[in-house]
Amino acid sequence: MESRPLYLGPRLKRLRRELGLTQAVMADDLAISPSYIALLERNQRPLTADLLLRLAKAYKLDVSDLAADERDDYARRLSDVLKDPIFAEIDLPALEVADVATSYPGITEAMLRLHTAYMREQQALAGLRGDGPGDTDPLAEARRFVAQRRNYFPGLDSKAEALSEEIEKLGGLQEGGLAEYLRQQGLRVRLMPAEIMMDALRRYDRHAEQLLIDETLSPQARRWQMALHIAYTALRSEIAAMVRGASFSSETAAQLVRRALAAYGAAALIMPYDRFARAVEARAYDIEALSGQFGASFEQVAHRLTTLNRPGQERVPFFFIRVDAAGNVSKRLDGAGFPFAAHGGGCPLWTLHDCFRRPGEVLTQWLELPGGERFFSVARSVTSGGGAHGRPAILRAIALGCAAEHAPKLVYARGDQTPATPIGVTCRLCNRSTCTARAEPPLGREILPDDYRKTPEPFVFAES
């Protein structure tokens, strides 16, 4: 059977971008012209066997992975999408669908992404999205994966702890020790100007065996990027095994979990379990003191505190949340029994939202939910980005919390006799009748008219 020409334009373009290369640099590496690279990426030329071998050799890639033809898979996926009832009145012969997938993979990918976004919005409108077992939202799937394992991954902790001991002998777990470890792995660490980094904070140059890091990053951030690279490489097999062992509805969900596991491994590397757990007890969960001791950021330490769940060596169980000024949740770790809202914003009475008015200040608060459950919260603003003129800094707020019964172990709660603030999970699920901060009436409650009487509260509810 005659073999088909191999057109891998979108994949070649994706690979080049992942490697952080321009067309000119890749062309130089492969000893061809930049214009030929452009033709390959637009699927106007097939990828020859010789060029496939050059790619694999230049960037240390597996030939079989590069050569895999995606056309049949694209055709199948596009056919599945076009079975949606929204296309029912359109005549779509299978031959035409296959021709589009083969000749126009970029258009096919755009169509697949658009339909995926459409389906997610349809699910959201139908009220199907949340954190339930049947939810296929990638972010919810990733959160569920972590929550089901109580944010504790013993294999990563053990391997990272062994690595940290090895790195300690090379100069400690600071920037110098990590760079020396990477050097011994045949990788040179270089700090590069932002314009060279092509909008990346960290870039692994496989061809030159270099780890390039944006020189405008703080020492803490540079160290974190090195630790992340070590996690992605030295813990690769452990991370891959865990991702393969789970069943995800999309590649995006799998990638989110892979990213979370790499971050877990990086934190376990610079804050090894045993040493960190002992320091936590000695410093009574003082996040700023632990940050100074381990050379990690406030957020990294707070995040690591949620992972101390080794059987027999558990510490205080925490929940963690990170929000922006608009209330969007960008990170959430369930724990300590706190019932996060699946839909809508959080309670405005929580000091988490005050962090934007009081940047850099640690805000503590006793919380009480409508059902009587009590929690203790530690919140503070954190900043990312910036570092140079024209690069905006992003201000977010994080909160770390635990059940009231564990709060006496925290330095922040000792001697704090302030009364608990009555909060709700979200306005739509909170039946407190005297809340002046309410944004919406709760589900299932009728509101009374205010023709003749107006109260400080936005809504007054009928008794039944």
UniProtKB/TrEMBL annotation:
Residues 12-66 form the HTH cro/C1-type domain. One of its GO terms (cellular component) is cytosol. GO terms for molecular function: DNA binding; DNA-binding transcription factor activity. Pfam families: HTH_3 (PF01381), Peptidase_M78 (PF06114), ScfRs (PF09856). Keywords: DNA-binding, Transcription, Transcription regulation. InterPro entries: Cro/C1-type_HTH, HTH_RamB, IrrE_HExxH, Lambda_DNA-bd_dom_sf, ScfR_C, TransReg_Diox_bact_type. PROSITE patterns: HTH_CROC1. Belongs to the short-chain fatty acyl-CoA assimilation regulator (ScfR) family. This is XRE family transcriptional regulator. It comes from Novosphingobium sediminis.
